[in-house]
Amino acid sequence: MRTEVAIIGAGPAGLLLSHLLAQDGIESIVVETRSAEYVASRIRAGVLEHSTVELLDSVGLGGRLRAEGDEHRGIYLQWPEERHHLDFVDLTGCSVWVYGQTEVQKDLAAARSAAGQEIHYEVTDTALHDLDTERPSVSFKDIDGTRQTIEAAVVVGCDGSFGPSRAGIPQTVRESAERVYPYSWLGILADVAPSTDELIYAWHPDGFAMHSMRSATVSRLYLQVPNGTDVSTWSDDRIWDALATRLGHGQNGWRLRPGPITEKSVLPMRSFVQTPMRHGRLFLAGDAAHIVPPTGAKGLNLAVADVAVLAPALLALLRKKDAGPANSYSENALRRVWRCTHFSWWMTTMLHISEDPFDAHLQLSQLRWVTSSEAGAAGLAENYAGLPIGF
Ligand code: FAS
Ligand code: PHB
Fold this sequence. Notes:
By secondary structure, the chain is α+β, with helices and mostly antiparallel strands. The chain has a domain at about 5-70 and about 95-175 and about 270-355: FAD/NAD(P)-binding domain, CATH 3.50.50. It has 12 helices and 20 strands. Strands 6-5-14-15-16-13-17-20 form an 8-stranded mixed sheet. Strands 8-2-1-12-19-18 form a 6-stranded mixed sheet, with helices on one face. Bound molecules: arabino-flavin-adenine dinucleotide and P-hydroxybenzoic acid.
């Protein structure tokens, strides 16, 4: 098989990249180790920032989002006895949209299927070859075990945190920085109407809690738990009791409505950045290059921002023989990656309790500052909702 761009991974980064390239008449082939159904069903991100929504709109992918998604002006920050709303629209002019990654994935998959995009699902043994040449390739076994090879001009690793592309950057040039947090999130989906109009991020001496949602009838909530927590040790009642305590059920007349839990899982939290995001004819985008703790709602949005910078760089390289944007892709993408990595670390360390009482004083002081100072609130709002593509 021959194409211009071989893409490894059919998650949001891989499918959106193939869509953006196709808008410029650049062909690609995508290989994916899971089934289309599995990729579409993974419960992950929930919030799309302003620039993500604008980008999806600009390439015809905003229709269902704007019809079925829920536009939010901001978030609530809370600690015992106090809940404060930060209005991102007042502070930055930017809103955010609650629209699950599963829905984004479905929209992307439908658009690519309608465009006749070649995607090989359920492949195995994916390997990258000759990345230092102008004829790199990707080999794999397809669903019936036949070995295939895609010859391309460029290979893009959109294969997430466990794919083979990261190792395609030679050990002699690649560097990585990582921070593992001493806690995890226990996340639930529940068939119950949200008890809040916008997301609540709550600091509590028992641990962090968050109230998000997926629709008017499905709520998404999270609890800080110790690393290594076995989700089976958390009964539905225990989960709802902890959420009620930490989110302030009964305070100022607010009540948390429990309901049937349909999914629960424990998500460890870490920050990870690998540089550079390009070597030879290999480019990395999304979780293949970086991981953020979900407290800043950045993971999916960063994957979108990477490919929004990468697509025009590949157009310049492949159509205009201008290697400039491709040569500066890694540096350009990493500016936003580190901004979002810092913001995600800051939100995470501000809201999650530790053993050290000194931390609690720092956290409450930060929370009081960002909810009482316009400058502090604007800083959080800009990072959460208002970073422009190409920041
Ligand atoms: P993805 O991981 O989505 O996609 C990579 C794809 O590559 C996968 O489909 C994988 O099967 C495929 N692949 C891997 N190895 C391969 C191989 N050898 N050959 C072919 N294909 C291969 N972000 C938030 O903003 N908020 C959240 O609440 C949130 N929750 C999350 C919960 C979990 C459990 C996880 C893992 C992530 C969460 N994230 C969250 C982050 C998540 O949304 C990612 O940022 C987003 O999926 C990144 O998209 P991609 O870079 O496309 O990577
Ligand atoms: C979610 O709805 O899953 C969600 C929202 C905001 C976050 C993390 C997760 O910061």
